Amino acid sequence: MKNFIIVIIACVATCIGARAADDDYIHVDWHPLFTDSVGWNIYSGDFVLGWNHAKGIESDMGHSIDIGWLTVVGAKFNTGHGQRITMGVGINWRNYRLNNDVRFIDDGERLAVAPYPEGASKRLSRVKVFSLTMPVLFKQRIVDKLDIFAGPVVNFNLRASVLTQYQLNDEKVKVSHTGIHQIPVTVDIMGGLKWRAIGVYIRYSPCHVLKEEHAPAFTPLTVGLGLAL
Q1: Is residue 88 one of the residues assigned to a domain?
Q2: In this structure, is residue 39 part of a structural domain?
Q3: Cα–Cα distance between 152 and 132 in angstroms, integer?
Q4: Which alpha helices (DSSP H) does 54-212 contain, by range?
Q5: Is 75 helix (H, G, I), strand (E, B) or coil?
Q6: Tens digit of pLDDT for each residue in 1-30?
């Protein structure tokens, strides 16, 4: 037992000595993290809240919401002369809601748009898409604390769903399902202005949201507000 205790003490002393020796040679410089230093920095930001217009269908822009954290983690390069480039990986959630006159229906083969039954009330019909995002944004300082920015945003559209609900003859009708054949990868063009950390943006995609052979063809245009852009 005595020999065992001596061995344990010796091992602990060796580990402490090795760690102390490492501290003499290993120095972690945390200065570049989440700063705006010249050169490369770790970056997180691009919180957005916007409203979607779905060109090609009868959409309700006032209730079609874009919510995203476009760069959860990424990198920023600061040239030191008013230019910055940010890139990274984030998440985005967008829905496209139809106006109250029409709804999404699924005939078993294709998602279509059609009127509600006569007398239906409390109407709602929307498509929702969840994506991983990879934005690459170029930012240029115009005057003190005012920047203009633009660049592509690549969307990896992982999940899409449709929901339709309404009330008919005091009965609530709700139909929802996933697997509505979203296009797996789409590209948006994003641009806007920011003052300090608050900005406005426009985001347009020439790509369809859903595969044309399975659903109505429509493309999104989004306008909104951003934080930490």
Answers
A1: yes
A2: yes
A3: 14
A4: none
A5: strand
A6: 545 445 445 555 555 555 544 445 555 555
